[in-house]
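Can you please make up a whole protein chain along with its backbone structure tokens because I've never seen that pairing?
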Amino acid sequence: MPEQAPGTAALGMVVNYYWNSPDATGKALLARTTELGLRLLRRNRRVGTIVLVDGSPTPDSELAATCEEIGARYHHAGRELGLAEGYNTGWRLLPEPFVGIMANDILPHPISALDALLDMAERDDVGCAFPYLSVGDYVTQIVRSSVLRPTMVTCEPASMTLNLNIFRRAVLEQVGGVDEGYVAGYYDPIMVLKIRELGYRVVLVGGATAMHVHALTKAEGGSTLGLAKLALDAERFRREYPEHHAEHGVWNVRFAERPFATTRPARMLWWLSENAPFWPVRRVLRHVGYTFEPLLTRYPARFGTGPGRAASGSAGGPAREAALRR
């Protein structure tokens, strides 16, 4: 295992290899992407423990051998794991004070992006830091072309995706990790909701980018995701978080309200995109929101810390405990 510089390995990483397809070609593609992601992580000297959680039905001897070669831990639970369970299984095996979760179709390149994410996560007011991605489900988070590149600023947008995220371990423990009640989606905005309710910021870091390899887990049929399961998750979210459900919002989430909206201008723009009378108008406004949200929610955003810290004035206190009991 490569040596770590003394005192620098503050970050542990879990890579989530989830696979439930019998397609041999697709599986080979994902295995190679996973291997490359692991090797890139090992090149960063601030990364200590690396755990690969293999959520596929049967163990993969080649990936296990790769882990042994680079000094990572290979973990197979003896059964198939869902995405959320895979993440939670992995980060709980990490001893570091800061923990990162990474999907198996993410390439952390350039590796310096991890330094920028960890630097942000180490700030006292931050609970989670995440990068801009080459491809992603939340358009605000996608790397911008040359014309829009100046809008790639450090900011506190309404949501994020759980693809590459660095957490303060204590915060992840307090929110209970990724919500395993959801199978195909919604655990992303729920994570944002819970962290901000505790009074911590969730920050998209302008100096950090990563490659999302064209969502291979979906394109090759290798993920546990699917529209039918997503529909069940949507109904569950409506039932569990009715105050945050919006009929015409992004992912049917009410981004126009706190703690998702972190500034008044962002709140106004999201409200218009959710409440305009016609779908074509709402769609245009939604894309305007995606484009300008980083500029409207620059870190530190006025309402980014949520009620917990504002009420208690510290990292603990009654407000935070009440949020945890929710």
Q: What stands out?
A: The radius of gyration is 19 Å. Residues 1-7, 310-326 have pLDDT under 50 and may be disordered.
